[in-house]
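Q: I have 202 residues here and want to know how they pack in 3D. Can you give me a structure?
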Amino acid sequence: MKKSNFMLVGNELWGFGQNCSGQLGLGDTENRKVPTLIMKDSEIRDVFVGYKYSIILKNNGELLVFGLNSQLGLGVTDNKNIPTLLMKDLEIKQISCGGFHTMILKNNGEVIVFGDNSLGQLGLGDFVARNTPTILMKDSTIKSVFCGGGHSMILKNNGELLVFGYNEYGQLGLGDYKMRNTPTILMQDFTIKSVFCGWGCN
């Protein structure tokens, strides 16, 4: 489902593939069939790709977003075809992009979410989209966050695994097909090392 690609080569960021919403950050909406230089910046720490949107995290805490607007968190209605500053926070520990939603984990355990929420994938107790970053919870024991196509997971240091969002195919693992719009305990297992989320499965 994610049709855009990025390569970080030294201090150069290259992109290629689908660009219909400006998700390559090249200032236009033309697809690229060969790797194309987006920017040179030695501060780039990581790049994250959702469905028709992208995020760049820099070492100075700057978070740049671009692509389809509904999941950029900028609070405006137009797409962005160049990297645009969403926030600056040196405490950002991890970012996960799903189909149309994003989760950010900070060093202090604060989880920030934004984007589509029609399936309850933001875990906020409703089905209302958020177009600005919104705090879901703060828990210093949170180890990692994970976004699937329309569902999400949170792993805590004590092995507790929380799930929420889309569940038509049983991808929450809860023994039914009902959506959950709040984090729900799936299991607690100290031996869990990591979690990987897909579109209809985990």
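Q: Anything worth noting?
A: Residues 98-202 form one domain. The chain has two domains: 1-90, 98-202.
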